[in-house]
Amino acid sequence: MAKSGKTITKPIVRPLRESECGEVAAILQYYASREVLLWRTQADILAHAESFFVAEESGRLAGCVALQNYRGGLYELRSLAVREGAAGRGIGTALVQGVIAEARRRGARQLFALTTRTGFFRKNGFKPVNREQFPQKVWKDCQLCPRRDCCDEVAVTICFDEKNFSPPGG
Ligand SMILES: CC(C)(COP(=O)(O)OP(=O)(O)OC[C@H]1O[C@@H](n2cnc3c(N)ncnc32)[C@H](O)[C@@H]1OP(=O)(O)O)[C@@H](O)C(=O)NCCC(=O)NCCS
Fold first, then answer.
1. What is the pTM of this model?
2. Cβ contact 61:20 at 8 Å
């Protein structure tokens, strides 16, 4: 049941199809224009199509997320967005849980994200950490970010090789 009280069909999380790159770009651009997410062009999304996953709800594309591979088993969860008007009914959670499962399947040692939604990520099993742990991210993307001098994002992470790691709900 959603916060509104309506019953919602559970979203399906699956790999992006190349024909959907324009729709994903539009979802991301909505938030990028509000400086919530980094810009990603349709061409950039197409070039990295294999790293994207989408949530489909009642046959409609409702959100997206990307799983970027760095070296040494380090992966980043990025470009997480739920279509405007579809928030608060479990689509973001389904995308994050889908990407956690995919990262584990690919043998990730650690998954991280930079976010202002720390509470949401905590609920999904992530812990806040010092962002300087992720210099690859800081050098590659932060230099291009309009908020680089007033950044309020927190680094959050899941370490899969921690002995005491247990997946949320597991
Ligand atoms: C952050 C974002 C992805 C969350 O997506 P979402 O679909 O709203 O997330 P969910 O619905 O799974 O969870 C949101 C809340 O609803 C609750 N919820 C989840 N499933 C629910 C359900 N079936 N019924 C009712 N409530 C539910 C969650 O507990 C969560 O509560 P919280 O706000 O107290 O943390 C979305 O708001 C978004 O696109 N934001 C803009 C871009 C952004 O900030 N991206 C993150 C940068 S890394």
1. 0.87
2. yes
